[in-house]
Amino acid sequence: MRSSGIGGQAVIEGIMMKNGDAYAVAVRKENQTIEILKDEYKLLAGQKKLFSLPFIRGVFNFIDSMVLGMKTLTWSASFFEEEEEGGESGQGFMEKHFSKETAEKLLLGFTVVLSIAMSLGIFMVLPAFLAGILERFVKKPFLTAVVEGIVRILLFLFYIFLISKMEEIRRVFMYHGAEHKCINCIEHGLELNVENVRKSSRLHKRCGTSFMLFVMVISIVLFMFIRTETIWMRMLSRILLIPVVAGISYEILRLAGKSDHPLVNLISAPGMKLQQMTTMEPEDDMIEVAIQAVEAVFDWKEWQEENADD
Questions:
Q1: 20 to 30 Å CA-CA from 27: which of 82, 154, 211, 287?
Q2: What is the pLDDT of residues 216-232, one digit of tens each?
């Protein structure tokens, strides 16, 4: 298996696939036709040499993923929005006061900032706060850091468990499985069709789920060496060190996607196991959507020819 370098994410009733700066979103509409948006997104990680350096690039890749992910998710959701009678959507309100393009950018920016703030609050600040309370009774920083990390992981698992019970999210997880299956199908040298995709694995080592688990595990190790005198300093330190944790996690994920070394596979195993919660077996019509998203931005036949074993 070789890494193709393509990646993506599930959206509402569809898939986004990205290849370099080019990305495509394929969505199956309610009338069963497939709508495809193809565009480019200039990655921050590739704009300057500094942004593409090891460990630093992980931070900017994370930001890129958040922005592009929200943008494509919003686009896919627009096909299924139903405004209440007499009501007004947030974007509709913004467009009354700004141009359509400005309104979309403002709404996207607000959504990204809110999402990041909520994630930091739930998965970083809250565990640090709870661990800080524990530290008053247990005067062992090592133990406190471990407990904080365990609480963080448990909150993450509980969050995934809760949202997986929602019908809409279950379908998103099925499209997530279709995305992984398409990439695995290509990278294992198979022709990209529904039959081959269906029998491919829905787990992939370069998945964002694995990245999030790496972030949490690495944070446990790193925070063992960070001593703070107050709970508030503890919580602030967790936020400030996010770029460091993200940078290290990205490099491990990048290595995992390019290597089948037994040690790398061992490190990747927990994340692959967690993907069994965030991916589900897709239906054939979902696979068709994923294939169209891939083919809109990636010439898989040419890639397979160039990477074929001699």
A1: 211
A2: 899 888 888 887 777 78
